[in-house]
Amino acid sequence: MSQERTTLIAGNWKMNGGLDEVDGLAGDLAGRMTGLTAAPGFEMAVCPPFPLLPMVASAIEESGIALGAQDCHGNEKGAHTGDVSAKLLAQVGCAYVIVGHSERRTDHGETDEQVRAKAEAAQAAGMAAIVCVGETEAERDAGRATEVVVGQVVGSVPEGATAENLVVAYEPVWAIGTGKTATPQDAQDMHAAIRASLADRFGGDTAAGIRILYGGSMKPGNAAELLALADVDGGLIGGASLVADDFWAIGQAAG
Ligand code: 13P
Q1: pLDDT by residue (tens digit) across 225-255?
Q2: Which site from 9, 99, 226, 246 is most exposed, i.e. has the minimal number of CB atoms within 10 Å?
């Protein structure tokens, strides 16, 4: 982690959480954040399911915790039943939108091109896109992990990326929800490859400011080691973000 990038600890609730989590989880975290006597030393974000966004926005108001959504449509508006526009997400208080999560790439067949359009839409609405990339176990075993991930970065990250409008999340598919994590060396190598690819396109200064998160079975017991890596600028956390004590402990490991 570099001095110039503020560590981002983002919780992806996925299709979990209900009304109880508004006060129970988001409210709990907000209380801990506002109770701090010194600056936290990291930024925290929570990304609940769509219907909870306005309620969670109220629960975390003035706590410094940022709100994020888990997806948006690539178009500004229109006849897209079941989809949500980036503009609406910004209106209800989102600062971030996760796009291209591997679960969406798999469950909904999202391509790099679609992910890029979603990221562009999020950025055009004034939010930062958290663009997710990651290789499968078969791709890693075949020695293709870097090629696959850098290819996804090139394909999914729109032109005009800045430190303000882009976050990249490296989430090896085989590490998500499995309890397996990348080794520190593998994580650092991949994050460095992602940053080098961003530098090729956007210049070294811009790339040096863009945060690259690690995701995949991050928990209190392994967070400090991963977050200490030079090019790991935070975490995108699934399961452990649903337990206030665990998510908070990950934040503490970053601060
Ligand atoms: P887990 O932390 O549950 O492995 O999920 C990671 C993830 O997919 C976050 O987006």
Answers
A1: 999 999 999 999 999 999 999 999 999 999 7
A2: 246
CATH number of 7-253: 3.20.20.70
CA-nearest of 36, 19, 68 to 252 is 36
Which of 80, 70, 148, 159 minimizes the C-alpha distance to 117?
Answer: 159
In the structure, how many helices (H) and strands (E) does the chain have? Answer: 12, 8
Q: For helices 145-156 and 112-124, what crossing angle results, to 10°?
A: 40
Which pTM was predicted? 0.98
Is residue 108 part of the annotated active site? The answer reads: no
Taking the centre of ligand 1 as the mean of its atom positions, its distance from the CA of residue 220, in whole angstroms, is 13
For residue 79, report the distance from its CA to the centre of ligand 1, in Å. 31
Report the atom number in ligand 1 closest to the C-alpha of 102.
8
Cα distance between residue 180 and residue 190, in whole Å = 16
The question of whether 135 is a catalytic residue gets the answer no
Beta partners for residue 97, in sequence order: 69, 129
Candidates 21, 73, 101, 135; catalytic one = 101
